[in-house]
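Running log. JK asked me to keep both predictions on one page so they can be read side by side. First protein, sequence followed by its tokens:
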Amino acid sequence: MSKWKVAAINFDHLHMGDNLRMAFEHEDVEIVGLCDEQPEHMQAAIENFSIPPGRVFSDYRECLQKTEPDIVLLCPATAEHGEWTEKIAPFGVHIIMEKPFAATLDEADRMQVAMRGTGKLLVINWPLAWYPPHCTARRLITDGEIGEVLEVHYYDGNRGPLWHVADKVEKTAADVEAGKAASWFYKRDSGGGSLLDYLGYGVTLGTWFMDGRAPIEVTATVDQPSGLEVDEHSITVVRYAQGLSKFETRWGTFTDPWTLQPQPKCGFVIVGREGTISAYDYEETIRVQTRANPEGKVRPVDVLQAPFQDPVQYMIHCIEEGQPIEGPLSLGMCRIGQQIVDTAVQSAEQKCTLPLIK
């Protein structure tokens, strides 16, 4: 069988290097093209994956026409997700868009319209969806161990988006401060801020844990850091028919969770009618309380197997097997998450509780 051809276009989000590594390590994938309007953004990927000059482009049309990929990895700034989906969709390729879904619900809906009639898949990749603790939590929910989910408590983030590049390579504090003025992460019009960066993770996986249920109303507040256009801390309270859940985002955690878990820990605590689960990012165990074991028990996380280890594996599996995208990468789950995010943004601006935006 010939290999799946993958092209990577727009390197605005630093996760592109991580997603390219997934493609590079897949035995049935060939990276056929890299493209960004600013060549320096691609330099690390060119070196890491030994990409020859003939596969490096600055114009996306030329890249697509010359390489004819099957799958395109997209990592644009949040506010440009709709624009880039509309640019790429006419070329008849499958798209893996790096989180979040979009900056607004209208933009998310534009993305779905752009893909209609192409016969190709669009998935939104949430890296947390591949973390063993969270996958284990979802399995236990499916198995009925904690009964109906009533509450999801989420706290997540990192020291800030400029503290690291691909493969979690660290930068210095001086680099971080110097980079804020030019970075799209700190520009309101580009979809910057911790709320848009991290709330979608929590509410999309939260929707997954709640079997696709949508909430009734949303209340959100954000900080207002001096000298910045965007927030670095947000708290969102979401009311469902069965109760309240809380989702908190933070740029400025004491440590990065992939090196040392900060306090509060990054991850989820899920409360059901018959038990609870704590599932924290990067940890090798989760803790489960049940009626039979109210004192709680620490359990090892599941060992994830291909093709359920990363978005590249999963998309190829779904294409080959003719299966729909399910779970937190599915557009249905992601749209509910985007509804919550949009309502949270407006709630924070208006300083009031709002009904879920439809």
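And the second, directly underneath as requested:
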Amino acid sequence: MTHVSGYSRIQVKRLTKIWLKRGQLRPRSSAGNGFTCKYTDADRHLLAKLDELHGTLSGPATKKLCERAWQLFKLPGYQRLAGISVSHLYNLRHSKTYQRNRRQFDKTRPKASSIGERRKPQPNGQPGYIRVDTVHQGDLDGIKGLYHINAVDEVTQVEVVCAVEKISERYLIPVLEQLLDQFPFVILEFHADNGSEYINRHVVKLLKKLLIELTKSRARHSNDNALVESKNGSIIRKHLGYSHIQQHLAPLVNQFHQDYLNPYINYHRPCFFPVTKTNAKGKQIKTYPYDAMMTPYDKFKSLDKPSQYLKPDITIKQLDAIAFSINDNEAAKQLKDAKQQLFKTISEQSNQAA
């Protein structure tokens, strides 16, 4: 009764007692004289129709339309509205009669977030400045697939890929901890686009604990996160494709990334690295010569005193043991076989679910 009538709970209780006592309810007449209603329900209906036709213009513009409708075009019904004040026009728009005839819904307005500094990373030749992005693994009949978290170091192109079931903090934070732990060197800066999966207080808390600075891409600067975007296509889409993978298979895919994909792309897959040259006009031009092509790990070792950037429990000797334990062809074959087994398992489980 409260919901249908619009009365408060106390009013409904009071009226119920009156009805039980008298058997009927009568509206009370107002004791005061009140004010004469100048604008009728017909005027409110007409104003609602006018706003619907013109897309709810400002108060002064709507008043001018009412004046033109009456004075210039002699349209019946606009005589009273032609003399309305702008402030009272808004009162009519807020009336129940107007709202019953027309409701307007505004789009959700974006809210600027103060989390993270909006700037381009400046590593100055030092590793530890990673760029992060999320890759969605397809939909199927409106059901979301799992997500890949792709992180690439800007200087060395050392890359770590992880899989997560959902991008809420419950699933994302443990995977981010695992992702940061897989980098052999100390992480100094975490750069992402403006997605809410990274620009939130949970990620900030994690990064602060690890003394990592959070930055985010600038507006109208599409190249701020271009490196990881290119890796999304050349690594994740090339090896995992676009097909739907169910969310509950995220731990299985994540283990594949950790055991086969990440070691292959960091120790056995060569990458182009830019060489910046300045032309006669002073403009900097990036070239990608063949001589500068090497694996991410080789690029890391080519830095001046690379051991100074490593985490305390990691040494160059340990990384060399991983890099040279098998050759590039053997690593590629292991990756191919593991990928075939992964897709076979995914297909079998999908057929069982169907």
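Observation for JK regarding the second prediction: The chain has a mean pLDDT of 88.
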